[in-house]
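Why run this: before we spend reagent on co-expression, it is cheaper to look at a predicted model of the complex and decide which construct boundaries make sense. The entries below are exactly what would go into the expression plan.
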Amino acid sequence: MIRRCAAVGAFLVMALVLATPREASAQDASSFIATLGQQAIQVLGPGIPEVQRQARFRVLFHDDFDLPGIGQFVLGRYWRIATPQEQQDFLGLFQEYLVRAYSARLGQYGGEPFRVTGMRPNGAETIVTSEIVRRNGTPIEVDWYLIGHSPFKITDVYVAGVSMKVTQRDEFASVIQRNGGRVQALIAQLRQKLAAG
Amino acid sequence: MRVRRLPLILFGLLAAGLAVSGCAAPGASSAPGEAQGASAADDFNDPFEEANRGIFGFNHAVDASVFVPVAKTYRTVIPPPVRQSVHDFLQNLNGPVIFANDMLQGEIKLAGDTLARLLLNTTVGIGGVFDVGTMVGVPYHSNDLGITFAVWGFAAGPYIVVPVLGPSNPRDLAGRVGDGFGDPGNYFASAHNLLWAVIARTATSGIDERSRNIESLADIERTALDNYATIRSLYRQRREAQIRHEKSNLPNPSPVQGGDGAADPSLSYSIAK
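The model came back. Tokens follow.
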């Protein structure tokens, strides 16, 4: 009941980034996501130790996500007031934070059937729609926002209409705001969180 | 008999509130694309944040000490098929309210789905304990008066955290009240002095829903830097997504694998519960 934002479940990642013109054929983008989805579901599968899961997730994020773009978006207007050093620190910590947070949050979907359901252009981006079919329940809609073309990079993931990168930005903005607008405070909290394991 | 009805109605409201899923939103006007604007980054529409955080903390304590243990016990003790039937039954009870809101929003196709499900599940599904509708390809979708108000153009108002019930806003809270008044189950119970039935429905709905979200909420709490801010964001976005889908039946994306109805927009908010 309390705070039960149902469907809240999963959250992956995100980014702004004005993409290069996309010549990607539709089939390419969808097969990219189909492959990625299968990998992710396997990575997240039950019975895989947390450390190993995180390691695989780290590779997946690094290879397939537009992490700098996502990081910049997530810091929002604070990106501009951050010093180059802070930006650097933030991006490094953010990447690891994502690995930890989302391998845990997405863990519950591990091993469940995943299928690509469609695709449509969205400006310079391509949106690939997919769904995770839950064991007992209605399917969960997952939309992937892609830029570029071979390699594709994922800029955002919407789960049940909820944007991962917007969620993350809202949270980080709140942390900074409540600490006198200091980006350093967010960096400290990220560091602390990661140190705590 | 007025006096007797009041608690029934109150419980009905609570029931409706619990039934209506977990996410609603401020900023009725904020279009999806706007959310990306940097200027909007700090606009959480949360003028009562300190009070809200206090209530959030209280809710969390109640949740951790009462609801989660009960939900876990429920999941341990009751076998999955029974829990599924309980879930389907409760969902079916919400059918009339969902149908009414489908109609109020002018969503004739959805209203037809809801009506078909209600008839099928209540008869073939033996009073709703089996979700025959989903089996024959008419999946469940949620709907509520908060969404209807939004579709009609009412603004959400500020974000508020309601004791026990959790995230909301004036529009969604009003919607809950309205849905409670409109629920035939509550009328029936009221007319027959079946207060216990309303209480039982409320309690069971809460347990059912909480038992389905134990892990996801725990994971968010464990990994978030600011759990309150995360939940607030999720609630707003989820609610906006529900409203958006109602407003504009999104064009179907080009089917890659032969369609199979996968692009049905109703899928997208069927997971609201």
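Strands of chain A lie at 114-122, 125-132, 140-148, 152-159, 162-163. Chain A is about 50% helix and 20% strand. Bring this page to Monday's planning discussion.
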